[in-house]
Amino acid sequence: MKFSTLGAGAALILAAALAGCGGKAQFAVQGTIAGLNNDGLVLANGSDTVKVPAGASSFVFPHQIPYGTDYNITIQTQPAHMSCSLGGASGSAGHNVAIAAQVVCNQSTHTLGGQFTGLFQYKDATSATPDTLLNRTVVLLNGSTGGQLTVSSPTDSSGKGDFVFGSQVADGQAYGVTILTQPVGATCTLVNGTGVMHENNVSNLVLTCATN
User: Fold this and answer.
1) What is the distance between the terminal CA atoms of the chain, rounded to a whole angstrom?
2) Burial class of 183 by CB neighbour count within 10 A (0 to 12, 13 to 18, 19+)
3) What is the rounded distance in angstroms from the CA atom of residue 150 to the CA atom of residue 152?
4) pLDDT tens digits for range 148-183
5) Which residues, including other chains, have CB under 8 Å from residue 134's CB and lie 6 or more apart?
6) What share of the chain is helix, strand, coil (3-state, %, to 5)?
7) Chain-centre distance of CA 198, in angstroms?
8) Tens digits of residue pLDDT in 114-123
9) Longest C-alpha distance within the chain, in Å?
10) Which residue intervals of the chain are DSSP H helices?
11) How many CB atoms lie within 10 A of CB 69?
């Protein structure tokens, strides 16, 4: 028993002596994660990689790095339907300094829009300037996000154009666009106003207007 105790003590002293003679402390390359709801995230530190599952709040790379070694964490693969960003991702492993990068993930968002036709300017015969052309406007509402959009008649007499909501829709979220207010002296209809946002912008809404 005494021999084993002395042997263990001697091993610790020898390890300390070796560290003092050039052995370098090892640091875990690690960090925190916020908002990761989907699988697919892969982080890299050079050739060292780690796959991070959905719901994870932290990560640790398989290999540690010695004192004084540079690290540069990058996102090799974004998670499905999400976009992640990195903070504190590069530096040099220093004495008593923990490597703690921050990964923040958000659901990807895309634009929602389409085309309109038949929305012409008009003249108000009852106004003081009856020959002045006025714009017809249609107000659209995306009920899923509360975003509103006013579509106005163009000035080139074509009556047609494109429209895009200012508020984007998250990947995987349903959208439902309806006509909130009709234009003066015209009636509009909307098709393709409902659906679920996927990985690309939606631009197939069709607003068709006709003068009464």
Assistant:
1) 103
2) buried
3) 6
4) 999 999 999 999 999 999 999 999 899 999 999 999
5) 121, 122, 123, 124, 184
6) 10, 50, 40
7) 13
8) 999 999 999 9
9) 111
10) 2-20
11) 15
